[in-house]
Amino acid sequence: METTIYQESQTMPTWFALLICLLGVAGILCVFLTCSAEEFGFALLALFLCFIVLALFSRMKVVITTSELRFGFAIWRKRVALRDIRVLGIEPIPVLAGFGVHYYGGKWVYNARFKGQGVHLVCQGKKHYLIRSNNPEALLSMLKTATTTR
């Protein structure tokens, strides 16, 4: 069993999850009042899929062990050996970057909130990642320490 050096988790803001749920329910009511049963069934299925995606991307974890960095969501995780990481620094994550996992500004952004700061990494000399953190200074410090001892 590997020793965990650093760990943090982030969750999506509750107000955002509630807003998505309310918009979904309002959309279903509009479809129900104006459309046929077949269209209503399709809208209900779409709402169900949106809730599943919302649940899967609502919590993100970052873990540094003695040999690797793990980060990501329930179904979309990355594992990178510490020897393959070059830490570049802390960068702001703009609101337009959204949340979840996506390619934005030349980097893969892992973000469970809308804005904040993240640590910019280069893995295996080519892939750039921006990992949002509740405490980016601590994450940066731990990554620098862990990658220089390897």
* Count of separate DSSP helical elements: 3
* Low-confidence sequence ranges: none
Shape: elongated
In total, how many beta strands?
A: 9
Total domains = 2
Task: Describe the largest sheet.
Answer: 5 strands, mixed
Radius of gyration: 19 Å
| Termini separation | 18 Å
Which structural category fits the helices and strands?
alpha+beta
H/E series: EHHEEEEEEEEH
Strand percentage lies at 35-45%
Summarize the structure.
The protein has helices at 14-34, 37-56, 136-148, and strands spanning 4-11, 59-65, 68-72, 77-81, 85-93, 100-104, 107-111, 116-123, 127-133. It has 150 residues and is of the alpha+beta class. The chain has 2 domains: 4-9 and 62-148, no CATH class; 10-56.
Key terms for this structure?
4-stranded antiparallel sheet, elongated, 5-stranded mixed sheet, 9 strands, 36% helix, 39% strand, single chain, 3 helices, 150 residues, alpha+beta
